[in-house]
Design goal:
The chain has 227 residues and is of the alpha/beta class. The chain has nine helices and seven strands. It has helices at residues 2-8, 14-33, 53-67, 80-90, 121-131, 142-156, 170-185, 192-195, 204-221, and strands at residues 39-43, 71-74, 95-100, 114-118, 132-137, 165-168, 198-201.
Length: 227
């Protein structure tokens, strides 16, 4: 795997390494440019099965997002990603997958209109943010948590404009929010307004309504381009 080779090796090919990373960023930017409408990125576990409640809910969120006029962007793999992409197809929308080469678990799902497979996590993660007007985050593991906290950090530090970050499944996420409030906020590691960056729901329709409201607020605050 190229990421592992790059991070572990001292092969002296610095220019070649930088060139390959740059080429992958360019491929990603070109793919994002193909998205012809506002997009919402949906994150969640690749290990969710098709007969699970989470799969059904992610599929419904994808369908409702498509019907609301959004493209649906995911990591392009199975589980929650497949469900959201499948829902986008159900809703007649645009389904996008930014996949990653992994030795296990990750393979393309069959519901993608725009697809690109990355070798480098950091290039891929940039495209999730570059394409997005908001995030919906289903239960997941380390990768999902990484994507969640990267989004929060970029918003907190002003690297991207504030967009909705919606956590789906209150039972799953509530302990994390409690810890964030009871430890991070209490210990002064974050500010009170940082807690407001996160919203939580158990309803697909509410998850989509929060994204629609956030997009409308953001669109209203951006001046029109000069004629």
């Amino acid at each position: 795997m190229e990421d592992r080779k790059l991070l572990e090796a001292h092969d002296g090919d610095l220019a070649g390494d930088a060139r390959r990373i740059g080429e992958e960023f360019l491929e990603g930017f070109i793919a994002v440019e193909r998205i012809d409408r506002p997009a919402i990125t949906v994150f969640g576990s690749a290990r969710i099965h098709q007969d699970s409640q989470e799969y059904a809910q992610a599929r419904e969120v994808g369908q409702l997002l498509a019907q609301a006029g959004f493209a649906v962007v995911t990591g392009g793999g199975p589980g929650v990603m497949e469900a959201a992409n499948r829902g986008a197809r159900d809703g007649g929308g645009l389904s996008v997958g930014f996949n990653i080469e992994l030795p296990h678990e990750q393979h393309e799902n069959p519901y993608l209109d725009i697809e690109l497979t990355f070798k480098h996590f950091y290039a891929r993660k940039t495209m999730f943010v570059k394409a997005a007007e908001g995030f919906v985050i289903f239960p997941g593991g380390f990768g999902t948590l990484d994507e969640l906290f990267e989004a929060l950090t970029l918003i907190q530090t002003g690297k991207v404009l504030h967009f909705p970050v919606v956590l789906f499944d209150s039972d799953y996420w509530r302990p994390l929010l409690d810890w964030t409030r009871d430890r991070l906020l209490t210990d002064g590691m974050i500010s009170p307004e940082d807690l407001e960056l996160l919203q939580i729901t158990d309803e697909p329709a509410e998850a989509v309504a929060l994204q629609v409201a956030g997009y409308r607020r953001r669109a209203a605050s951006i001046p029109a381009a000069p004629q």
